[in-house]
Design a protein that fits this description.
The protein contains no helices and eight strands.
Length: about 120
């Protein structure tokens, strides 16, 4: 099991087809990767409730799943990300589909031994 903290960045548009001008970012309070499942708890910008991203992988590179707001039971966003890692950093990058809007999502993570309370 690996534990992380970091930030999430959203940029309007799909990075495969050109991106727009609007962007936002958010703090990752904690992320856990365990047996091919990523759970990422994060704050949401613009006064939305905090969210939880749940991702699965079969090959350790392509992750897909959804995000839901903490107070909702149903996922409201579809997320498809690719995992890149080296000795120091971990980055997930891909698409974030929210209703009819598409964003490029970049999650920058740093591994930690324990989460600060």
């Amino acid at each position: 099991m690996k534990k992380y903290i970091g930030e999430i960045f959203w940029i309007e548009g799909d990075y495969n087809n050109g991106i727009g001008q609007g962007s936002s970012k958010s703090k990752v309070n904690r992320a856990i990767l365990n047996e091919g499942i990523f759970k990422i708890d994060h704050e949401n910008p613009n006064n939305y409730p905090n969210g939880e991203i749940r991702l699965r992988t079969k090959d350790g590179f392509l992750f897909d799943g959804s995000m839901k707001y903490i107070d909702e039971k149903v996922g409201s966003v579809l997320v498809n990300l690719k995992l890149y890692t080296n000795k120091k950093n971990t980055i997930l990058i891909g698409t974030w589909k929210e209703e009819t809007l598409i964003f490029t999502c970049i999650i920058e993570l740093t591994e930690v031994k324990e989460f600060k309370i």
